[in-house]
Each structure stands twice: as structure tokens, then as C-alpha cells.
Amino acid sequence: MAEHNDLVGHDFEVPDGRAKVTGDAKYADDYLFDNLLHAKTVKSPYAHAVAKDIDTSVAEGMPGVHAVITYEDVPDAPLGMPVLAEEPLVFGYPVAAVAAKDEYTAAAAVEEIEVDWEVKDQVIDPVEALKPDAPLPRPAGNVPTGEPAGESAEGQGGGNAAIDTIKWTDADFSSQYPENPGEYTIEWNWGNVEDGFAEADTIYEDVVEAHPQPTNPMEPRSNVAHWKADGSVTVWGSSQSISLTHTGLAGILGISPTNLTFISNFAGGGFGSKGTAYAQMGVPAFLSKQLNQPVKIRGTRREEFHWGNGRTTLLAKVRVGLDADGNITALDIEAIGDAGAYSSDALSGVSSGFACISQCWQADTLRFRGIGVFTNTPKRWPQRGPGQNQAGLIMSQIMDNAAKEAGLDPLEVARANAPENGDPANADQVPMTSAYLGDAYDMAADAIDYDAKRDRSGSREGSKVYGVGVASASHASGYVGFDGLIVINTDGSVEVRQGAGNLGTESYAAVARLAAETLNADWDRVTVSWGNSDKSSFTLGQFSSNTTFTTGLSNVKAAETAVTYLKEIAAQELGGTPDQYEVDNHEVTHTGNGQSLTFAEAAQAAVATGGKYTAEEIPQFFQDNLVPFTIGAASDKIGNALVAFGKTTGEDLDGFVTSFAGAIAEVSVDTQTGKVTVEELANFNDSGNIVHPESYEAQIEGATVQGIGYVLSKHYRHDSDTGIPVNTDFYKVKPPTIHDYVAGDLHVGGVDEPDPYGPHGAKGVGEPPYGAAAGAVAAALGDALDTTFHTFPATPNNVLDKLRSGEVDL
Amino acid sequence: MSATDSSGGPDPGNGGLSRRDIIKGAIGGTLVAANAYLFNNIRQASADTGDEPGVRDRFSNQLKLTVNGRERFVKVEDQERLAETLRYKLGLTGTKFGCDRAMCGACTVQIDGDPIYSCSYFTRDAVGQEIETVEGLAEGESLHPIQEAFVEELGGQCAFCTPGMIMSAKSLLEENTDPSRAEVQDALEGNLCRCGNYENEIQSVLTAADRM
Questions:
Q1: Left (φ > 0), alpha (ψ -120 to 50) or beta: where does B91 sit?
Q2: Cβ–Cβ < 8 Å for A259, A1
Q3: What average pLDDT does the structure give for chain B?
């Protein structure tokens, strides 16, 4: 097959571009229905309480109220989030729900529902939760145990871990990180760190907390469910994923996925928080089950703070040893993560953070010990680089300080410990398939003129002090074991029926570009389906920086199947053998005599031949390996189009696929006002070959904005006496506005070196640049004031507190 | 004042006596006395004042709105906000609810050319004003230059904020055809984008300005 690369690496008009600018794009709350009912919920006004009795009688009798359900009407969910809870473990969690003719009536009915509450003790701080006399955040204990969920993709499942009680009875809690800590639930090491420290010329130790924050995508989680009398259910939801949300939601509803259609054409942001099915989807569904009428719950911004998810706290004590050249001889890290009230994401957050550090900082020896803890705060769930980006924030200042203590330049130390192709990652020291973090650092240094920035570090201009910082982050970015599906219709049009969602990253469109590249198809005649579970080949969710690799590769496999079929059909129709044909320009052509079939003619011949070419017979390999939904997604094309399946089995994948970002930031700190300004920032990715340059850059820019918001402004705040959140509005939690990111130039780009296993050399993009940006700003801030920020965000108030603490010599 | 409080109905037209005629008749009769100031208000409200909305337009539940150049009649609740009316009564769902509290700008529409947060604007207050939403920009298949630029420059990621961004940009470019980058930032500062896609949003507006 000719190597064209006509599509990969070039910009194109995205398939959903027009819909996004005309108002035609349909988000979950944009579908209009006849007989639609509206749901509202009764929420807990306490951080931890039990609903002893719920009196719904008045509400049920109100005109316009169609149904009232309580926790008794929904299935129990031992560790995950129940749809409605008997014992809400966080402020704002619902115990009952109403369906009424309109939102006003539903809201009025909610006011008429009386709940008899038994208020329980609460705890909102993860360190506090480990103290012997602290209350238990959950009835069954204070820690998630069991198998650490590993990288965040698995963490999206999150429900298999058990609950236990672990107290650090002998610890001294007087310092930020407890001295003499007790039991950890995650532990692994490379070699013996004490041997490594013996080799070190410089040993540096410090404590940094990467703080928690709400996720808050623009679109609150609205959902519509129609549970019909025949038992079939359709849900229009806001989700990053189709395949996993479809099956996960069927689980929440207690029905077979074959009875559920899930539709999500556009998701108004998710950043991990809408990665898979979530409990809120069950509220309209269980109301609709009683009424067989469509029911909508329009998510509100307030609810997003309570029902949505947040970033896991990661409090880490880091001890690092450097030799005279800046190589890390030993890295010893202890960490405490916060799961919030639900799920086990503290475990995957801690273990993902550890994995990221092992990837970005190639140490001779290392040891990781960590524990996840429950608190009565909103559920923690993967948020764009869950654990990895906390690690990026934590490690940057520590390595900056360690380098300076060793008399070395921080960039030089980062560069010296950056991974190369085949270097080990994670607990099992599996080789990384490609790693060009060092090149990313170099590109960032060139773009921002690092030496000039380093020269200006510490200098003053009026009340401003300048600093520069270097950071990195990484994320696993490719998985195997998933399906692809390509249809060539008898008119020659090509459909890529992929199963990723439409989160806004345009990666679903990149999947189609990759498949079309393999097919050498005319892009104008390729369509990509998204948003409907009935037409989705089964894939992993659209999260974990994996869509480009995971869903891309499985659909490239489907395209390879299509190419094989096209050649076989051409040989059958025109003579010769399949290997004498090549597929190019939307045709299959004999390389000798130039005879050819168009895709339309080939598809017509496929239909005439039938069998495997039209999925009337499913080849044994696909019968054995495909998820049945993938075959179902082809059902309307069986016998009337060329149907090609793909499956990634991983047998040719030798290693661990990881993406990286390296960033350098210059900040100024106004010592009179405490305001931190990011003057300039450079952020470069190693994400394999670049598929779609425009969206690649948009991902890095967006991640940078979010990373800066994380380190400088956004956070959860809860009243420690009551556990009640105090900043549940945008103007209080302060996500970055258009004025709040980089004052000067924001340089972004990519190394653009291929991953040997990636589809057309590509890896995922979205998550690492967030942690790299946050870390670079944090390190630059510490550099400007020649100190360590142990807590974040670095709001003007917190910076002024630091300046007045006596720790900073101005 | 019960005459102005009633729920109203379709205009009786030429075939019957309109409410306005009844009120005018009453005012012209024997009732005018010590409470004349009260009736002066009614007289004012009832008078046909050209472009100004009259009693029916402002106070009956059946309102007449001008949306994207078309007259639309719609029945609203007293507390109904313009975003609700546009989305759920008129089917114009391009205008989004992002926060319900005038904090994010996803609901931005133009009222007489000015960008406003329609989540915090009573529908009743929009009577007699020109309401423009994102659905009103394209002419058939032909996109408005701002929309075109947002497609080309990838101005939307998740794009939930995009309609509001476009409406704020439209108001800017109608007043300032050659804005600086800083002026674009100022014009879009009331529109939050959680994807952090600000660089592309700014570039989209600058590209559109070049073409307008």
C-alpha cells in the first residue's frame, strides 16, 4: 500500500464544526419532547446524615406532580454512588426525587417533602480521617482497600474495592505530613532506596499538597430518560463516552444493555467527570420507569458542585537523592489521597501519581507508599490527569529545590532524568514504547528562551519579582482489546462507526482520519458516526488521553480488514491475486494492468458475493474476539454493504504507551498585592505523530489554562465544623477567565516523533500538558520567592500569607 | 387595576370590542374624578405610542417577542427568564444554561444589539426589544463571518460556551470593526470557557473582524 499521509498531520474542517456555531448541536438538555416531565431532587443539608423518615404525602397530592421516589425505589450501591441515598455522605446528595409537569412545580413539591434527619459526625480532611479519634466518614470505614485501580482508565470503574478502617494510632499529626505514619494500602519499589541514598551527593526532602478542586464542566449534568412500557429504555445524556456509558448505565438501571439505547451527541465538557455512567442518570430513569413518560433532570450549577466530581487531594512527602551530575539515585515518596465520600478514586489517584513520577523521573531506585482515605466531601473521580497532574504539581518544586541545593540548573536535572524509548515505567518496570520528554523540554526551552528567563530569575521590577520553573507530566495513552467497524456503502461512501464520545477534543474525528488514511479514502466521502450506542463499535471511554490510540488503532484495524476485502473482491472481479492490487484514491487498482474498481463497485460486488464481506458470516476470529455490541452496530448493514471489523488484541504491543509534556513558565509575583502573573509559558507534548495540528494545539492550550487555574485559583472549600461547602458558585471558585492565564506568549507544540505501535504513530494528547503547566507555574513561583509553597492554590491571599510568614527573604 | 392583570387572550380583532376600547371608554366616562392620577397611568399604558409596547404586549401572559427578526407569540410565567422561553417555548436551544446565575455567559443573547445574560433577564422585560440568538446569524446555508471563523479556528472545543461567545463577539464587532486582541478579551470576559479554549476564541474573533 502506498504511504501517502494525505490526512494524518493536516488540519481539516471537523464534522461537528457547523453544528457547534449555529446552535444545532444537541446537548442533553436540548432535545424537545411531547409529554416531558421534569425532575428535581430532595437533598441532604448535612455533610453526613441518615434520612430516618421521608414524608412525601403532601407532595404526592400536589397538582402537576406525577411521581415521587425515594432511596427505597432504587437499587443499593455499596461503594459507588447510589442514585438516591438513605445515608447521604456529602452535603447536597439527594434522598428523594419528584417528577412534575414543569420545573417550578417540581421545585415546589420538593419543598413539601419532609425529611427526618439523624445528623452524623463528619470529617472533611483526609489527614484528620486517619486520626484515632476522628469520626468515620462512611459507616463501614475510612479507607478504600483492595486492588489499587492503577491507571485512571481502570479507575473509571472504581467500584470493586472494599472499605476498611485504618487509623494511624502511633503517628504524630503536628506536622503537615504525619510523622511515624501507620499502614499504607499501596506500596511498591524499584530496588532499595537506602542503597540509592547512599550513592547520593545531595539529599532533599519536602512536603507539598496538591489540593482538591471541583471539575465543573460548562454543561451541568442534564439527562432525559424514557422507560417505555415494553421495558426498553432510551437515555439522552451528557457523557464523554458511548460504549462504557451504555453498559455502565444498564448496570445502574438493572437492565440488559440490549434494552438500552444511549444517546449523547455532544457533551458540554467533562474533563473526566462524565467519563462513564453516573448515578444522576438514574434519577429521571427510575421516575420514568413508574410513568413510562420521558422525564428530564436539568442539572444546575449548584448541583454540579455536589453531584459532580472533583480532583483527588494528594499530600506527598518526597525525599530525593541526586548524584553530582544530577541523576536521581533514590526517590522515596509517601502520599495520602482523598476519595471524597464515594468510589475508590483516591487509590487510582495515588497509584497514577506514582506511575507518572516513575515515568517522568527515571530514578535508579525508588519507593512509593500511599493510602487513599474517605472524607465527607464530593466524590473524587478522574479529573484530567487524575493523580498524574497532582504529581506534576508536587514534583516540580521539589526537584527545583533539590537541583539548586546540588548546585545544578533545574532544567539540566529534569533533562538528565527524562525517559528515553524503552525506559521502564510503573511498579512492574514495563518498557515504554516511546518517550521523548527530553525533546519536549528542549523545545520548550528554545521557545521561551530559557537562559534569559533563568538570568532574570529573582530580579525585581518595582514590587514584582520574577521566577522561572520547569515541570513535566505523563499519562498512559493507549489501550488494546477494543473494536472498530467500517462500512463501505454501495454508493462508495465510507462510514467509520466508532464508539468514543464527543467531549470536544475532536478525537472521535481523528479516529476517522486515521482509518481513512489506512483506507486511502477520499475524506469528503468519509463520515464518522458518534453519539448513539446503537451504531458504536465497542471501545474504551473517551478519557485517559487514549482515544487517538485506542479507538484510532481499533478502527485502523477495521480499515485494514476493509483493504483486505477490497483486494480480494477486486481479484475475484478483475482477475489476478489480491496482492497484485492496491487501494488508493477511493479505488482498488491492479498494480500491473491498471484495471480498477471504485469503492462503490467493490461494495456492490461485496453485496453480490455476500458471506464475510457483508457480515452475513462473521469470521471466526471476530466471533471469538469482538464484543457483541460491535456486531450489533453493523446490523442495519448486513447483506447490503461491505462491512469490515477490527480488533486490537495487543499481541504485537510490546510495552507501555505513555504521552508526556514538558513545560517552562516564567511568573512574576507582586509582593504588595500577592498577585501571581504568568508572564510567558511554553508547553510541548510528546504524543507521537500529530494527527490534527489545530486540535492538538487546542488541547495543550486548554490544558495550560486549566493547569494555571488549578495552581493559582481553583479549590474546594468546606467549613470544617459542618462540612458544608462554602464556594459553590463560579465567582467564588474562580475558574480562569479570558484574562487569567498567560499575560504574554503561550508557546505550544509537539515533538512529533512516532510511537512504533500507535495508529500512524500517534499517541494521546490531552492530559499531561495540564500537570506540566501547573507544575511549571508552581516551580516558577517558588523560584521567584526562593521558597516552597506547601499548599495551593496560590491565591493573592495565600501568597501574602507566605510573604508575611517570615519564610521569604525579600 | 384588574383590567391589566387578567390573563388575556387572543386579540379580539375588528369583530369585537377590545379591552383597550373598554378602558378608553371607561376613562372617557364618569369615573374620572379624584383618582385621576391612577387613570392617567392607564391612559398612558393604553395609548398607542408607536414602537413602544402597549398593555397587551407587556402585561398579558401572551407576549409578543421579536426574535431573530420574527414576531413570536408565547405564553410565559411571571418569573420566566428569557433563556427558558427561548429554549423550551421557542425551541431555540442554541442559548445554553450554564450556571442559572449570570456567572458564565453561556446564555448570552443580544437585546437591541447589546449582549445580555438571558438566564437572568425576565422574558417580560424583552417585550418590544430586538432579541437576537445564535440561530439568527446564518442565512440559509451561509454562515455569518463570526461563525465561519469559529469553525475554521476551532473556536469551540466542547462548544457549550460557543453560542454565547459568538453573541458577545457580534456585539463587539458591530461597534468596533477592528478590535485589538485586548479589546476582544474585554468583550469576551463575561463568557467562561472551561475547556480553556480562549486562544482559539480570541483568534476566531480577530479572523472574523478581518473579514467583516
A1: left
A2: no
A3: 83
Helix (H, G, I), strand (E, B) or coil at A487: strand
* Cβ neighbours of A739 in B, within 8 Å: 185, 189
pLDDT at B11 over 50: no
- Interface ipTM above 0.90: yes
Nearest Cα residue to A352 out of A379, A395, A388, A382: A388
Domains within chain A, CATH numbers bracketed: 17-23+481-647 (3.30.365.10), 31-120+218-269+274-307 (3.90.1170.50), 314-478+655-804 (3.30.365.10)
The topology (CATH level 3) of B145-211 is: DNA polymerase; domain 1 (1.10.150)
Count CB pairs under 8 A between chains A and B. Answer: 167
Q: CB-based contact (8 Å) between B46 and chain A?
A: no
Nearest by CB to B143, which of A21, A269, A504?
A: A21
Instruction: Give the C-alpha separation, A14 to A26, whole Å.
Output: 16
User: For B95-143, what is each residue's pLDDT tens digit?
Assistant: 999 999 999 999 999 999 999 999 999 999 999 999 999 999 999 999 9
Closest CA to A399 of A345, A349, A472, A348: A472
Q: Are B211 and B199 in contact (CB under 8 A)?
A: no
* Cα–Cα distance measured from residue A618 to residue A483, given in angstroms and rounded to the nearest whole number: 14
Write down the pLDDT at residue A180. Answer: 97
Backbone angles phi, psi at A119, to 5 degrees: -80, 130
Task: Please give the average per-residue pLDDT across A571-588, as a whole number.
Answer: 97
Q: Which of A69, A75, A94, A76 is nearest to A84 (CA)?
A: A94
Instruction: Tell me the three state secondary structure of residue B140.
Output: coil
Helices of type H across A648-692 = none
The CATH H-level (homologous superfamily) assignment of domain B61-136 is Beta-grasp domain (3.10.20.30)
Helix or strand or coil: residue A740?
Answer: coil
Model confidence over A355-398: pLDDT tens digits?
999 999 999 999 999 999 999 999 888 899 999 999 999 999 99
Non-local (6+) Cβ contacts of A804 within 8 A are none
For A83, the grid coordinates are 442514585
Q: Domain coordinates of chain B in residue numbers?
A: 2-57, 61-136, 145-211
Residue B20 at interface with chain A, using a CB cutoff of 8 Å: no
